[in-house]
Amino acid sequence: MRSVRARAAFGATLVVAVALIAAGLSVLLVLRSNLIGQADLQAEVTAQDVASRFALARPGDRLDLPDSDDDRPVQVVGEDGRVLAASEGLEAVSGTGSAQVKPQAQTPAAGAGSTGPGAEDDDDSDADDDTAADPARGEVSGDEPRFSSGRATVDGDRADYRFAAVEATNEAEQTVTVYAGAPLTTEQDAVGTVRDAMLVGFPLLLVVVGSVTWLVTRRALKPVEGIRGEMAAITASEDLSRRVPEPDSRDEVARLARTTNETLAALEASVERQRRFVADASHELRSPIASLRTQLEVGAAHPELLDVPGAVADTVRLQQLAADLLLLARLDAGEQPGQSLLDLAALAREETSQRAGDRIPVTVTATDGLEVTGSRGQLARVLGNLLDNAQRHARTSVTASVRREGDRVVLAVGDDGSGVPEAERERIFERFVRLDESRARDDGGAGLGLAIARDVAHRHGGTLTVGRSPAGGALFELALPAA
Known about the structure:
- The protein is built from 9 helices and 14 strands.
- It is of the alpha+beta class.
């Protein structure tokens, strides 16, 4: 089953079917148990009644058994297994103490059949008088009656019965077992009716459950099909500006649509950044390459006109730009920084000491022992980019400081230039972005230094922000977790 709707409908139908079968079996078992219990009670009442009559009867009395019209066959069996009495109309029996249905011997207290009209009243009256006068008369066993299942034929009708067996002893110390039956026809009819109703109703109910589940699942998954279709169209057209439809509901499908649109928006922005990056990189590379080629062609034609310092400067600029692009590519690929311990103050002093040829000397204020974890090369690159940016914009001074703020170590680089307008303080960290002033100076910056610095800061779990320095220029602060 490749369809979610089909699997959902099949699964729901299967679960309901198992539940219905279990519930149906339970109902049938409980119903059958209750009806058999009622049959046992009816059989026990009849057996106790006949046993009481036998126990109270005097020698020569006739034992009255239920008529065949009562549909409750009775059989009295002696200790030797002989049938002493049986109901009229009983033609065959099984499940009792004996398969015989005709009395085999006349007992002193029992005779087969029922008494004639009026005899029962006389016998009962005499028995009551004798019982009151003679407390030593027979008794019915106090043991729990025994129950069994069997079949009996009464007046030509064969049916299943539940038999109750009760022992009784008369005053002549004669012990018999009275078997009385109650028909199971009611139980069988009731169980059969319920079973037939279940056999008809359960399949219909399963069809309804499967159909409803199919329709509900189809309705619930309809937005998903819309999302899939739109995604297929977006893939075919490569138009990332399109979005999938978002349903008005607040369920999982709506959240899926919103997440899909957010993913498409992020992908569109990423592709746009990549396109802009490629275009800007091509533009930035074109200038030094064209300049270098022009100088080399002029030098080849007129050696005396070759500008060697200019060619070297263009080569250095080209090399720096290639290094920046390579570092950005590694950062975008998810390269993780090293885990070396380094003293940020010592790093600041070391880097500034190597910049003796800078236009403006750098003043360093740092406290030793402020260690961070990361890549020495990448953090040195960040510091170098910040110092290069400060050198391009400073008028008379450039400062670098390292301090501790809570659980972070802060490296700050400031200058006394014109500063960064507040509206531009986030945009300058974008790739290939240069403000008008830096573009006018045209001193070799490609607009990648600050972008690289912020990416490296984020890779180290830190931040890089820009504000206003006390001298009035820009103040860049790199905050890293202390080691």
